[in-house]
């Protein structure tokens, strides 16, 4: 069982030179800001894997989700391309953030810039099985906007 302290779970990181730990900016924040560990530029309508210098040790039955920072998306058109990205508990490599730039100008990333946020969540694995029929519901196979806009 993972060690918890006052509704917190312990996540360990090995840090590359110059890297910094993720940081919650407010007491009610669900996401901890993560910083770039490199200077780089992302061309318009392009993406880049940006180094964080963070090598995690996540307790079993938990994951870290990598999510966009709303300010970067709203003000600069820059977001995490595969949001939320998943970092599994058995991964020990560097966390890299796939940042996409949908603006019309290059986006400059400086070492130490807050580029994404990390959210720690519990994981529940499923047992998958094959059946000949699935149950009917009011919605059934309706999808892709079948319930309308209003």
Could you please describe the fold and organization of this structure?
- There is one protein chain.
- The protein contains 1 helix and 12 strands.
- It has 150 residues and is mainly β.
- It has a domain at 27-122: Deoxyuridine 5'-Triphosphate Nucleotidohydrolase, Chain A.
- The strands form 4 sheets. A 4-stranded antiparallel sheet has the order 3-6-10-8. It has a 4-stranded antiparallel sheet with strand order 4-12-7-9, with no helix packed on it.
- The N and C termini lie far apart (45 Å).
* CA-CA gap between termini: 45 Å
Number of strands: 12
**What's the level 1 CATH class of one domain?**
Mainly Beta
Largest sheet: 4 strands, antiparallel
SSE succession: EEEEEEEHEEEEE
CATH homologous superfamily heading of one domain: Deoxyuridine triphosphatase (dUTPase)
Mean pLDDT rating? 93
* CATH architecture type of one domain: Distorted Sandwich
General shape:
globular
Low-pLDDT segments, ≥5 res? none
Using only C-alpha atoms, the radius of gyration works out to 19 Å
Structural class: mainly beta
How large is the count of helical segments? 1
* CATH-defined topology of one domain: Deoxyuridine 5'-Triphosphate Nucleotidohydrolase, Chain A
Percent of sequence in beta strands? 35-45%
Secondary structure: helix percent: under 10%
């Amino acid at each position: 069982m993972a060690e918890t302290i006052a509704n917190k779970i312990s996540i360990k990181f090995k840090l590359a030179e110059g890297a910094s730990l993720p940081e919650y900016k407010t007491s009610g924040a669900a996401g901890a800001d993560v910083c770039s560990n490199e200077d780089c530029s992302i061309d318009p309508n392009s993406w880049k894997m940006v180094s964080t210098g963070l090598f995690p040790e996540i307790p079993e039955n938990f994951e870290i989700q990598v999510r966009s920072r709303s300010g970067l998306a709203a003000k600069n058109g820059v977001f995490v391309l595969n949001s939320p990205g998943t970092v599994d508990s058995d991964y020990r490599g560097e966390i890299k953030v796939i940042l996409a730039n949908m603006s019309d100008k290059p986006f400059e990333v400086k070492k130490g810039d807050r580029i994404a946020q990390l959210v720690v969540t519990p994981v529940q694995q499923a047992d998958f099985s094959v059946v000949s029929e699935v149950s009917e519901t009011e919605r059934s196979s309706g999808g892709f906007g079948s319930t309308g806009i209003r």
